[in-house]
């Protein structure tokens, strides 16, 4: 599978909305000893790129909130932030501008910013790049990190499987990259672990944040009888609100969107990036990044605080909450795995043999949907 074909695309309107902001010294200052917002000295400058707006109740909001926590932990660091950065040559231009303005660490947070980051990293060997979600690290000054959030998706699947009345779940997905396929599979496996009758219907939108397509996909799943809707989209607001208006239940992703669904919210898989961002930036600024764990492909599991479950909503029964929390404790201790064979794909072929639990690297090569998922993987 050519992953680069499925990079996130920002709209022309979003590109026009590109905003580069600073949170410390005056914008455009290159000086490493300029005054910080709290009257201290700026010891370093870092740049952060978001593919969408920081108020999307999803991917970008989670990243943004993590960076705000980093600012509190490292008040002497100047932070340059750019929202709505397309996954095109524009991303390279933004990174180059940040470096010109003094950034020695760049954090491109979108999957599709990976190739631009690789290219800019090659031109600036003294600048450290921390890419979010990339498949590999091919430059000594570029590390890639992510979390095994599919483990939390297994748990949200349990909540869905225990809450559904129709035994039909819905999943709105952007592109069929390994990350999304893993989430769908884990969700269905978690649901089926507590409800053998359940099936997950999936619709691919071919876009990370298109409200019109999201609305159409959600309504299609609801029309098919799904009474719980989950998703792997960057901006989650539309799917959650559409589901809530229909009187169905929601499972969130990336960030807590429970305020959008006071009646139908179950829970969600969410990111808590702040502590990890802080540790990575400190390692990058230490002068010895190459020996840090973040210099290569770095992944965390659910035992790490980076991955969490969103608060349970009113639609979740006490019994369901207790079962999900018990499974979460087992998963965090390593007793429970999201993927343990035998597991079959949609064609009935065993893809994970009995007793086996593949490691993260193996799972990140996933190119199939498991038995119980209804819908086809789009072919490029």
How would you describe this protein?
With 380 residues, the protein is of the alpha/beta class. It has two domains: 3-147 and 272-300, Response regulator (Rossmann fold), CATH 3.40.50; 150-263 and 308-374, Response regulator (Rossmann fold). It is 33% helix and 20% strand. The chain is built from eleven helices and 16 strands. It has a seven-stranded mixed β-sheet, with helices on both faces. The chain has a seven-stranded mixed β-sheet with strand order 13-11-10-9-7-8-16, sandwiched between helices. Strand 7, helix 6 (178-194) and strand 8 (199-204) form a beta-alpha-beta unit. Helix 3 (89-100) crosses helix 4 (114-123) and helix 5 packs antiparallel against helix 10. The chain is globular, with a radius of gyration of 21 Å. The model is unreliable at 1-38 (pLDDT under 50).
CATH class of the largest domain: Alpha Beta
At CATH level 3, the topology of the largest domain is Rossmann fold
What overall form do the CA principal axes indicate? globular
Domain count, please report it.
2
Which secondary-structure class do the elements indicate? Answer: alpha/beta
Give me the side-by-side strand order of the main sheet.
1-3-2-4-5-6-12
The CATH homologous superfamily of the largest domain: Response regulator
Strand count: 16
- Name of the CATH architecture of the largest domain: 3-Layer(aba) Sandwich
What do the pLDDT scores average to? 90
* Sheet having the most strands: 7 strands, mixed
* Contiguous runs where pLDDT drops below 50 for at least 5 residues: 1-38
What pattern of helices and strands is seen along the backbone? Answer: HEEHEHEHEEHEHEHEHEEHEEHEEHE
Cα Rg = 21 Å
State the helical fraction: 25-40%
Percent strand? 15-25%
- Please work out how many helical segments DSSP would assign: 11
How far is the N terminus from the C terminus? 8 Å
């Amino acid at each position: 599978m050519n992953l680069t074909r499925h990079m996130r695309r920002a709209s022309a309107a979003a590109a026009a909305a590109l905003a580069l902001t600073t949170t410390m010294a005056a914008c455009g200052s290159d000086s490493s000893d300029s005054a910080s917002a709290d009257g201290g000295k700026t010891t370093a400058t870092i740049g952060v790129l978001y593919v969408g707006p920081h108020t999307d109740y999803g991917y970008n909001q989670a990243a943004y909130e993590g960076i705000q926590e980093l600012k509190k932990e490292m008040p002497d660091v100047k932070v340059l932030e750019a929202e709505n950065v397309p996954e095109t040559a524009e991303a390279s231009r933004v990174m180059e501008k940040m470096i010109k303005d003094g950034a020695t660490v760049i954090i491109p947070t979108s999957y599709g910013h990976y190739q631009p980051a690789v290219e800019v990293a090659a031109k600036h060997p003294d600048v450290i790049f921390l890419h979010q979600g990339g498949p590999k690290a091919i430059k000594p000054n570029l590390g890639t990190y992510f979390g095994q959030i599919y483990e939390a998706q297994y748990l949200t699947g349990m909540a869905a499987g225990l809450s559904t009345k129709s035994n039909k779940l819905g999943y709105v997905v952007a592109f069929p990259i390994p990350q999304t396929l893993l989430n769908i599979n884990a969700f269905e496996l978690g649901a089926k672990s507590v409800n053998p009758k359940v099936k997950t219907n999936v619709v691919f939108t071919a876009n990370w944040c298109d409200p019109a397509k999201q609305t159409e996909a959600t309504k299609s799943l609801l029309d098919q009888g799904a009474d719980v809707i989950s998703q792997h989209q960057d901006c989650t607001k539309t799917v959650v609100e559409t589901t809530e208006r229909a009187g169905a239940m929601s499972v969130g992703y990336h960030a807590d969107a429970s305020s959008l669904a006071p009646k139908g919210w179950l829970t969600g898989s969410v990111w808590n990036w702040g502590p990890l961002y802080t540790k990575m930036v400190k390692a990058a600024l230490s002068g010895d990044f190459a020996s840090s764990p973040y210099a290569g492909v770095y992944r965390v599991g659910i035992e790490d605080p980076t991955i969490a479950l969103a608060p349970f909503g009113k639609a979740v029964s006490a019994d369901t909450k207790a079962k999900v929390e018990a499974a979460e404790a087992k998963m965090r201790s390593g007793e429970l795995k999201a993927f343990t064979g035998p597991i079959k794909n949609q064609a009935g072929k065993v893809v994970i043999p009995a007793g086996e639990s593949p490691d993260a690297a193996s799972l990140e090569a996933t190119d199939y949907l498991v038995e119980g998922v209804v819908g086809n993987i789009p072919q490029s």
